[in-house]
Specification:
CATH superfamily of the largest domain: NAD(P)-binding Rossmann-like Domain
Strand content: 25-35%
Bound molecules: L-homoserine
Oligomer: single chain
Number of domains: 3
Shape: elongated
Number of helices: 14
Number of strands: 19
Helix content: 25-40%
CATH topology of the largest domain: Rossmann fold
């Protein structure tokens, strides 16, 4: 039997306890021995909870318990999670976490500590919730050089964009409704401004290329500027607007988070509601896509428990994860290129045509929208686009993945 401790008994932490209780027998078979939760650390009280007797407010009771071999960290946020995780590793315990802020900020350092001590630091649930993506990148796709990763990495924004598309509703209206139903946080900034997706693409890019990607270096835009008019034009182009976290190797690695027009023939087009999907292109495998629930109590807990099982199977053996602390110098965002969908006032039609008329230029019309002129540019770098756009009063612009 192996004893584990959990820090953070919120949605995911209590999900981990529930999954271990529910699937006790099958988990024991897969891990090779029974897994039991011995202690749970949380500053809050949970009167009447089935795990009430296991609760403590003092993390030392977990860190200093020699019977506890694995710590599950489901607190979220960088501090104090970082101190606790480091303490756990220094006390000879493997750590399994769902905490993307912690992994994006300190992943390489915590992996190095785990390696030095023949322990494991595992984080399957930090990206894509219940979708297996970390283990595939680290173990299954290792014959490939990764050429591109493109993901719908945030369920809240995908839900909002899907609803705007289905109902022709404005962003604010859908956000308010999503908050009322508990799908969106009261403070939705991390989701709607793209910060959550940014941390996730930073983790995936670090793993894909084996070096540290600092999320502060990734150009990030959210969905707050998207209107129902943009959605109407997207439909006219047989496309949908998706918040994509992406990284692409074109000489250097270019990474960004932004709303992007995705056409109906792309597999990411059909990923709707709170679902996430990660599309990966390898140089020998070609294209592969991972799809599922990117958040939620049990899907996320399922990924954490799969890490716990892996840690049990690899007691005293470090599972090698290539992610050095050496910083990956990303290509300059201004040099990255795409087509742009642009809307300007009708009065600027001629000026827009003069500036952007080139291969690939295409006028776009959407039913019922008047008083403005919309078009798709040819492929331009960010720098080229920005220089031309300076001469127009752009109403909105969205990059296109086609
Ligand atoms: N807020 C995140 C989302 C939760 O909406 O996808 C999972 O990280």
């Amino acid at each position: 039997m192996i004893a584990i401790g959990i820090i953070g008994y919120g949605t995911v932490g209590s999900g981990v306890y529930e999954v271990i209780q529910t699937n006790r027998e099958s988990i024991a078979k897969r891990a090779g021995e029974e897994i039991t939760v011995k202690r749970i650390c949380d500053l809050r009280d949970f009167p009447g909870d089935p795990a009430e007797a296991l609760l403590t407010k003092d993390f030392k009771e977990l860190a200093e318990d020699p019977e506890i071999r694995i710590i599950v960290e489901t607190m979220g946020g960088v501090q104090p999670a970082y101190d606790y995780v480091k303490m756990a590793l220094e006390h000879g315990k493997s750590v399994c976490t769902s905490n993307k802020e912690l992994v994006a900020r300190h992943g390489s350092e915590l992996l190095a500590i785990a390696k030095e001590r023949s322990l494991n630091f595992l984080f399957e649930a930090s990206v894509g919730g219940g979708i297996p993506i970390i283990r595939p990148l680290n173990q299954a796709l290792t014959a490939d050089e990764i050429v591109e990763i493109k993901g719908i990495l945030n369920g809240t924004t995908n839900y909002i964009l899907t609803k705007m598309t289905r109902e022709g509703a404005e962003y604010e209206e859908v956000l308010r409704e999503a908050q009322e139903k508990g799908y969106a946080e009261r403070n939705p900034e991390a989701d709607v401004e793209g910060h959550d997706a940014c941390r996730k693409i930073a983790i995936l890019t670090s793993l894909a290329y084996g070096s540290q990607v600092d999320y502060e270096d990734i150009h990030t835009e959210g969905i707050t500027q998207i209107t129902k008019t943009d959605i109407a034009y997207a439909k006219a182009m047989d496309a949908a607007i998706k918040l994509l976290g992406s990284s692409k190797r074109q000489g250097k690695i270019y990474a960004q988070v932004a709303p992007v027009l995705v056409r109906s023939d792309h597999p990411l087009y059909g990923v709707n509601d709170v679902f996430n999907a990660i599309f990966v292109k390898g140089n020998v495998l070609g294209e592969v896509m991972f799809y599922g629930r990117g958040a939620g109590k049990l899907p996320t807990a399922s990924a954490v428990v799969s890490d716990v099982i892996d840690a049990v199977k690899h007691k005293n053996t470090n599972i090698m994860t290539l992610w050095s602390s050496k910083k990956l110098e990303l290509g300059c965002f201004e040099d990255s290129a795409s087509r742009f969908f642009v809307r300007v006032p009708e009065s600027e039609r001629k000026q827009a045509q003069k500036l952007f008329q080139a291969d690939g230029f295409q006028e776009i019309k959407a039913e019922g929208i008047t008083g403005e002129y919309a078009f798709l540019t040819g492929v331009l770098t960010e720098r080229e686009y920005a220089k031309k756009a300076e001469e127009l009063s752009v109403l909105n612009r969205i990059r296109a993945a086609f």
